[in-house]
Structures are given as structure tokens and as C-alpha cells.
Amino acid sequence: MAESRAAIRYAKAVLSLATDNKVADAVNVDMKQIVSTIAGNADLNAMIQNPVIRSSDKKKVLFDVFSDANKATYNLIDTLVANKRIVLLHDVANKYNQLFDTLRDAQIAKVTTAIPLTKDLEEKVLAKVKELTGKTTEIKNVVDESILGGFILRVGDVQYDASIANKLNKLKREFTLN
Which pTM was predicted? Predict the structure, then answer.
């Protein structure tokens, strides 16, 4: 719990500085890259979490991996290393993205489908979500063949399940109750 509060504080500080310096968009791109890179690379995540590896070595590796990052992102990494909080980097980047989206009045709609969305269908989903919520929306398409067909749309706390697997489960429950 204390670590998540610390991550929020660091994210708010970075967002404030980035907004003041008019680089919030660039830092947001960096933070998305940090989240996806750390989540997708078990070795990098293990290195960051390992207390035996010296902080200076972690800093050097992170600067090398994110060599094209903004100065504000480098300052965040430097500050986390100096404060012995580099293990929070993934959480801070995640929180930054959430705060940035909130600041921009944007949201992420997670669409789970059996096959990847086409551009045309993605545009239709975006238009419908914007019509329903009134907010700028970004689509994150997750492919899950187990839903068989249809889709599951999740925006914030609201989920709409129009998958074939869900409809089959409803039919199964109806038959077992009768």
C-alpha cells in the first residue's frame, strides 16, 4: 500500500513538472514504453527488483534501454535511483499514464475479440464509445479465442459482454435451472 502511494506521489510530481515544461505528451509516450518494456521483459524486471544489483548499474542499464527518452523521464529514473525507489518505476509509469489520461479527459476501452479488430470496426467502436461517454477514447484490442465470437467491451468500471461464450453459458444455466 505504501509503495502504491509513493508511486502516485512520484507520478503526480513528474506530471506536474512535465506539464509545466510542456513535455507531458512526450513523457506519456516514454511512460507507456517503460510499462510495456518492463512488463514484456522478465530479465529487465528481475534486474530492477533485485536488491543485490547496485543502483548505479540499474541506472546505467535503464538509461541504455530508454536512450531516446525525454529529459524529464531521465530525471525520474535518476530520482528513483537516488531515493532507492527504482523498484517503483513500473508502477510510477503506470500511474503517470492514468493521471495523464484523467488530465486529458481520456480513457482506454478494452475490447476483447476472438480475432483482431479491423481498422473499420475499431473506428466504429471508438465512435460508439465516444457517443456513450463523451470522452476521448483509445482502443486496446485483446485477442482471446476462448470467447468464440462477438466481443467484450470494458470502459472504466462498465463491462458489456456480447461474446458467444457468454451467451452459451447463459443458455447452459437456463437449461440446468429448468
Answer: 0.68
